[in-house]
Specification:
By secondary structure, the chain is of the alpha+beta class. Helix content is 31%, strand content 33%. The structure holds 2-acetamido-2-deoxy-beta-D-glucopyranose (NAG) (2 copies).
């Protein structure tokens, strides 16, 4: 329960989807992490998977899952492209959404959303287009964002540079404690690395997203700083993601570098066996 508790706490604490999730339509109410006794998971997944077979097209209810899921992909994209230890984007609100089939190649969402920069508490309306390619091989959604200039221009260079200098010369990150811990707490010194881990994990969350997922960062299991290479700080970390739709908590290993000049570069990702091993082993696959 510790992890689930942390997820719920984190949702209340920092990520802005907690509000939108509680207002999502009847079909999705049961996906709140706190509402799930764990043994019910498998049935709910199957039921929802069946319900989701028919994709909404045309104008979407901005509070319902199809628009929210596509909008979440924009958040991952913005974090991956523009996030840093001191710049972290969240999805504040979906104002409108439209989905259409694109002849045999996939489905395209046009969205008007409010994006939130969590650290400076700044908000801006942005337009975005998210294209989910169809086909046997799952490809990353493609994202285009426009009219989002102000929030992307937010300047955190001096904080980034100070952190970089400290950890390049004088300090090393190494923690086997989960971020946040089961009480939702993060040591202030580790907060920039929590943010950085979210930014790096956005690479996975973007790549793995489909019209049937809604990924959030759940926890960092551990993070270890490796030797700096080519002026890039290098990190090895294990993260737990949370898909709100399936209630899965996939676990990934992630190797990445960061510097203020180059931003985040993901070098290697690897999905690890499921967190709830004990539950899964009890069931035939
Ligand atoms: C490194 O740390 C020591 C003590 O912790 C401090 O006195 C020194 O100024 C630091 N150097 C840099 C470059 O931050
Ligand atoms: C980090 O966590 C993962 C999974 O929880 C574990 O397999 C790995 O050994 C841990 N690494 C360190 C350095 O603690």
């Amino acid at each position: 329960m510790g992890l689930r508790r942390a997820i719920v706490l984190f949702a209340l604490m920092e990520v802005t989807w907690s509000l939108s999730v509680t207002t999502i339509g009847p079909k999705t109410v049961s996906t709140d992490a706190s509402a799930h006794p764990e043994p019910a998971e498998e049935n709910t997944e199957q039921k929802e998977a069946a319900e989701e077979d028919v994709m909404a097209t045309g104008e979407l209810n901005p509070n319902h899952y199809p628009a929210q899921r596509a909008a979440k992909v924009v958040q991952h994209y913005l974090n991956l492209r523009h996030g840093s230890p001191y710049k972290l984007f969240g999805l504040k609100e979906v104002h409108s959404g439209n989905a259409e089939e694109v002849a045999d190649s996939g489905r395209k969402y046009q969205l008007e959303i409010s994006v939130h920069e969590i650290i400076s508490n700044t908000k801006e309306k942005c337009s975005a287009e998210v294209f989910f390619p169809s086909g046997a091989k799952q490809l990353s959604p493609q994202v285009q964002v426009s009219s989002c200039e102000e929030i992307l221009k937010l300047d955190a260079k001096s904080e980034e540079e100070a952190l970089y200098q400290q950890y390049k010369t004088n300090k090393t990150v190494r923690t086997e404690k989960r971020l946040p811990d089961s009480y939702g707490h993060i040591d202030p010194e580790m907060t920039p690395f929590w943010h950085l881990s979210i930014v790096a994990s956005s690479f996975i969350m973007l790549k793995e997203s489909t019209e049937n997922t809604l990924y959030n960062m759940a926890q960092v299991a551990n993070i270890t700083q490796l030797a700096t290479e080519n002026d890039q700080l290098k990190f090895d970390c294990h993260v737990l993601l949370h898909d709100m739709v399936s209630q899965e908590i996939p676990q990934w290993k992630l190797l990445f570098t960061w510097s203020p000049a180059e931003g985040v570069k993901v070098l290697h990702t690897e999905q690890l066996p499921h967190v709830h091993e004990s539950e899964k082993q009890a069931k035939p696959n």
